[in-house]
Amino acid sequence: MKTEKCLDLLATLAGTASIPAGGNTPLFRAADAVLTMARAYESDGRTFLVSGDPVNALASAWYGSGWLHFGIAYGLLETSLPAGCPFLSPCEPLPPEARGKLEEKAGRYRRLLKTAGESVACECDRSTPAGDFAERVLLIVACYSSQGETYCRAGLYGDALACFSYGHGWLDAAVTSGLFRIVRNRELFTV
Fold first, then answer.
1. Where are the domains of the chain?
2. 3-23 burial: b if 16+ Cβ within 10 Å, else e
3. Is the separation of the CB atoms in 8 and 28 below 8 Å?
4. What is the mean pLDDT of residues 2-19?
5. What is the rounded distance in angstroms from the CA atom of residue 76 to the CA atom of residue 69?
6. For the chain, how are helix, strand and coil distributed in percent, rounded to 5?
7. Does this model's pTM top 0.70?
């Protein structure tokens, strides 16, 4: 998928998302944080696109999508539209001059996601609905990490970066929402 199309999908979903929890409850605050981050990364992605930085635009688009999809899946956010999947088609090829930066960033984000995954512990009892969802988040993170590894081996660094960014978006949103506690490397998370 073209990065701009992913950003459009992210903007549309974020624009129609609402927070079902009322008032100043912890769920409302978590939902607001997730929606704010998704919108911020959509905006950052557009800024990167306009400034001629397609690598960071790609990372921002998929990272923000991870945040938003987490919020919808966890029930923090509601939208009348289907969540939409930015992975329905491969990432657009980036200009050849971006190859070095893209390859470096994909490798760095691979390490970042691995380290982030090793830096959290489940905060919820695994027999509760929240604990069950935390396990689902770990599975999603593992799947996107594995798929990113596959793309790296195939030399498809744009798709790899998208997978690593999306998986980290899910994990970061889950930490912010209280499903995990940070046991080390706090600087890898937005809390």
1. 3-83+98-188
2. beebbbbbbebbeebebebee
3. no
4. 94
5. 10
6. 70, 5, 30
7. yes
